Amino acid sequence: MRVAAIVPAAGRGERLGPGAPKALRLLGGVPLLVHAVRALALARLVDVVVVAAPAGDEAEVRGILDAYEAPADVRVTTGGATRQESVRRALESLEPEVDVVLVHDAARPLAPSQLVDDVVSAVAQGAEAVVPALPVADTIKRVEGGRVVETLRRDGLYAVQTPQGFTRALLTRAHDAAVIDGFAGTDDASLVERLGNAVVVVPGHPEAAKVTHPADLAAAESALSQRLARREH
Ligand code: C5P
Fold first, then answer.
1. Angle CA(28)–CA(22)–CA(55) in degrees, nearest 5?
2. Are 159 and 136 in contact (CB under 8 A)?
3. Distance CA 162, CA 103 (A)
4. Residue 7: is it exposed, middle or buried by C-beta count within 10 angstroms (0-12/13-18/19+)?
5. Are strands 26-27 and 30-31 parallel, antiparallel or unpaired?
6. 50 C-alpha to center of ligand 1: Å?
7. Ligand 1 proximity of 23 Cβ (cutoff 6 Å)
8. Max CA pair span of the chain
9. CATH architecture type of domain 3-130+160-232
10. pLDDT digits over 63-74, tens only?
């Protein structure tokens, strides 16, 4: 088994407010992207990491990864106009020997390496597509034009995280079908679901939370301090 981890990192991160692309914002003085790449590279079961950088920023991203001495084999490719396109381009750049592919958002900097290995293990044990997920705590409603039109039953609702793991064959087929059909999904598993293939759920982790808004960055700073304090004891 040869495992590649793709990191879509080509978003502008406008919801975080003005500044550098989201993946290059600092958390504990280190870019979000570097945290995410380290978590993947430190996982036992990941062989190569491919980062999709914003078009035009490839050299800067390469320089940042080198400056922080990212461990393992880390490559940089050019991202696309959407997250899905960034993943597809990185997927196309993988060498033929890769047979398992993870996709992990740079915007989830504190996903534990153990979670990464749990996802790869589930694929190694026969699942073609795997997502980490946590039950939602909030009641989720569908809202249109400022009015609630539906309240979803909370039991059975999960918030899905990354890394998501796939056999390379299935992920490639799912991306190809999405291009042909003009389908745009917010995660990779949704491209697989529409082919009718099973997507297996493994337990997610609170630290794999996504950084989208400024408050998420503050929460991640606090999670990072707690993690560092635990290690010092
Ligand atoms: O915007 P959102 O938080 O959903 O982005 C999820 C991930 O997709 C981020 O890591 C972001 O950098 C990446 N992305 C990308 N290419 C784009 C847009 C987003 O790689 N064109």
1. 130
2. yes
3. 7
4. buried
5. antiparallel
6. 14
7. yes
8. 53
9. Alpha-Beta Complex (3.90)
10. 999 998 877 789
Residue nearest to atom 6 of ligand 1 (CA): 105
Locate the domains of the chain by residue range. Answer: 3-130+160-232
* Ligand 1 site, residue 80, Cβ cutoff 6 A: yes
Say how many CA atoms lie within 13 Å of 179 toward its Cβ: 12
Q: Give the list of residues 6+ apart from residue 17 with CB closer than 8 angstroms, or none.
A: 214
pLDDT tens digit string along 171-230? Answer: 999 999 999 999 999 999 999 999 999 999 999 999 999 999 999 999 999 999 999 998
**Residue 104 pLDDT exceeds 90:** yes
Average pLDDT over residues 94-114: 97
pLDDT tens digit sequence for 129-188: 999 999 999 999 999 999 999 999 999 999 999 999 999 999 999 999 999 999 999 999
